[in-house]
Amino acid sequence: MIEISHLVKKYGSHTAVDDVSLTVEPGRIYGFLGPNGAGKSTTMNIVTGYLGATSGEVKINGYDIFKQPEEAKRCIGYLPEIPPLYMDMSVEEYLYFAAELKDVPLKAGRKEKKKLRKQYVEEAMEMVLITDQRNRLIRNLSKGYRQRVGLAQAVLGYPEVIILDEPTVGLDPKQIIEIRRLIKKLGERHTVILSSHILSEVREVCDYIYILSEGKLVAGDTTEHLLQQVAHGKRRIEIVLEEDGAAAEEWLKETGIVQEVSLRPGTEEGTVVLSATVPEGDEIRNKILREFVYADIPVLELKSAGKSLEEIFLALTNPGHLPQEEDLPQEEFYPEDPLFPEHDVSGEERFPIGDLLQKEETEGVDLDDSNL
Question: Residue 210 has what pLDDT?
C-alpha cells in the first residue's frame, strides 16, 4: 500500500526526518505517535506530496510520489492539522468544489461524472454525519463540524488511504469522542493513518503503532509486541493481600524471587497491593503463590500488570529514563484562551491583556495581533 524507504528531510542543518523506512499494509488503522517536533507532520506532508524530501523514496500503490504525483495522490485522502476550508462557502458547495479539484470520479463521461459526483458528495456527508449542515456557511460551524467537513473532503472518491494529521487538536471532549468514532468507521472501508501525540487516542483507535522521536523511527509494531520490546524479559506482577503488607513485603524480598518490591494501599478497605518485578514466565507466578501458601499468608489476587502505553512511549522516546507515576502524561482539556497562557494548546506563550498594557507602558511593547 505505502512503502517509505530511507526518507530524509532537512531544513538547513536541522534534520526533521532522519532515515525513516516503514510499510503501511491495507486494512489497518495506523498510529503515528511521537512528541511535538518528532517529525510526524513532516513525514505525512511528504507522503501526501505537500513537501519534497531531501532524499529517500515514497511509493503509494506502486506510484512514486515524486515521479508520479498525480497517480499517487489519487490513492490518498488527506486531512491536515488545520483543515483547508473556505469559510464563505456552504458545506455542500465546498464538497462539490473539492470533488471538482480532485476530478472525482476519474473515469466517467460528462453526464455520468455529474451524477456520480453528486452521489459521492451525498455519501461523504452521510458518512461523517453532516447532511443536515449542508446549506450552512462553514464560517458558522463549530470547530467539531468543521473537522467533519474536512474529513468529508478527505473521503471523497473513496481513496484507499486516509491520512489524518492531529484530527482532534483543539476539540472539546464530546467532539473528540465523535471524531474517534468516525475514524473507527472510516477504518472499516479504508486504510487509515492517524498522527497524534495523545496516547489514549492512539491506544483506542489504532491497530498498529509507529513511534517517532527526533525524526527517527524508534518502534513499529502492535501494542502487545511493543510491550514485549521494552520489557527486556521482565514484567510486573501485583499481589493483593488482606492483612498488613509490610511484613509480607520484607518476607518477599528475602525469598530472592522478585526485584523492586513496592507496597501501596489496595482499592478495597483492609487490603494492600505488593508490586514486584519478575522474570517472564508463568512458573514464577506459580512459585510465588506456593511460597505465600507455605508462609500462611492469604492471597486475594495475583495478576500481571503490564507496562502502559505511556510507559512504552517514555521508554522509547527518552531512553534511559525510568518513568515515574508523575511523569506519565495526563489527558486534560483546556480552552484555547489567550487569558490563560498556561492552558493555551498552541504551545506559544500568551499574555493576559492587562499584562500587555502594562508591558506597553513600561517596556514599549507593540500590541500587534501576534501578542493576543
Answer: 92
Provide the grid cell at 348: 506559544
> What is the C-alpha radius of gyration for the chain, rounded to an integer number of angstroms?
26
Q: Report the predicted TM-score, pTM, of the whole model to 2 decimal places.
A: 0.67
What DSSP designation does 281 have?
Answer: S
Cis peptide before 26 (omega within 30 of 0): no
* Residues whose CB falls within 8 Å of the CB of residue 276, separated by 6 or more in sequence, listed in order: 236, 237, 239, 252, 258, 259, 260, 261, 262
Cα of first residue to Cα of last residue in the chain, in angstroms, is 44
Distance CA 112, CA 149 (A): 25
Contact 222, 207 (CB under 8 A): yes
Please report how many Cα atoms fall inside a 13 Å half-sphere around the Cα of residue 193, on the Cβ side.
Answer: 28
Which candidate, 32, 18, 26, 20, places its Cα nearest to that of 2? 26
Cell digits of residue 77: 485522502
Contact criterion met (CB below 8 Å) for 98 and 76: no
* Contact indicator for 103, 73 with CB cutoff of 8 Å: no
What's the whole-number mean pLDDT along residues 272-291?
A: 73
pLDDT tens for each residue of 173-213: 888 888 888 899 888 889 999 988 777 788 888 889 999 98
67: pLDDT strictly greater than 80: yes
Residue 10: predicted pLDDT: 94
Q: Identify the three-state secondary structure at position 219.
A: strand
